[in-house]
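[Meeting: bench + compute handoff]

Bench side (C.D.) handed over the final construct sequence. Compute side (W.E.) agreed to return the predicted structure before the next meeting so the bench team could plan truncations. Sequence as handed over:
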Amino acid sequence: MITKTLKNLVTNAIIYRERKHYKKVLNNKKSDLLRIKQFKKYPMEQNKPIVCDYPFYNTQDKEWFDFYYSVYNTPSTDFIPPTVYNLYLEPRLNEYLLSKAIEEKNSYDLYMYNVKTPKTLLRRINNFYYDSHYEHVKCNDTKLIDILNSYPAILIKPSIRSGSGKSIMKFERIDGNYFYKKQILNVAFLNDYDSDFIIQEVVKQHQFFRQFNPGSNNTIRVLTYRSVRDDAIHVLHTLLRIGRKDCFMDHDNLGGVVIAITKDGYLKDCAIDAKGIKHESFNNINFKEISRVPFIEDIHQAAEQIAGKIYYGRLLAMDFTINENGEPLLIDINCESNGVNQYQMNNGTLFREFTVEVLDYCSDYYRINGFTIIQFY
């Protein structure tokens, strides 16, 4: 049996590690802003952040207010430092042990059956191969090429924990075989792949989204919140992620940018990269010249429908793409380690009007149960 003392020791070790990591991250971001003379101090006395009144707050956290203020340029009192979010809020809002299966991409077609996804060609689940209909496949090189042969390019990605583009590869067909750089796609490669995976078609993106970068799948990220008061689903943020020209992925840590989409469906004036640097244009696209973003209502409807089926994850980040026919396709569901920087750099407040509701809920829980943030089996 795991004792309370052991839990507290592990918790304290994780808190120390998390704060040390984010101190380093923050110092790097601060250096980038100082270099371009964009860094400025948050006016703490006039605009005291709400989180400061809660036991989660640590004096180290106030430096994050400087960073967000420097990028967002408005002193929002609802800024949430990533240390507070990762250590105390998300572990309470999302029951990790019960919601892990939600992130498993091979489960989407089973449980999200009325939400469309990119066409699946092959999957590996618990070390066995299955086709798009979950029928067992005895896979060899001939069978593999037969499955993929009609597609000029395919994507392989881990079925769980593929955040920040980890282990995602785009193979292109050349003379009957599929290559990613110098790596050929064959059964030997699949057998050595370090996790279960899903192989999908490369989506032909709708022309509106393709204009930002034809070489990457420029996705729409939607952050939803299931209220702890009345269980209602709310869309907190909608962002467009754009990849850099020489990258097939749209992640900002790979050189892409993120730009907020307003409630009315329009892009804000500037996109922001991972360093907090603003871009009025990117890939030769001037954001001020872009018309209203289409299909936002359809995406929100799909996001709310998905969130309504997930009871143990109150905060979900979902990625969508729009195919050439204007249909929203679900790419990913994230309920653990949802980065908060991209939302707050673009929109200031993370939880919007639900900030106090969330902080009260989590604070009351930890006041009663103690700050044992780790979820044990």
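W.E. noted at the follow-up: The chain has a mean pLDDT of 92. C.D. will use this when planning the next construct.
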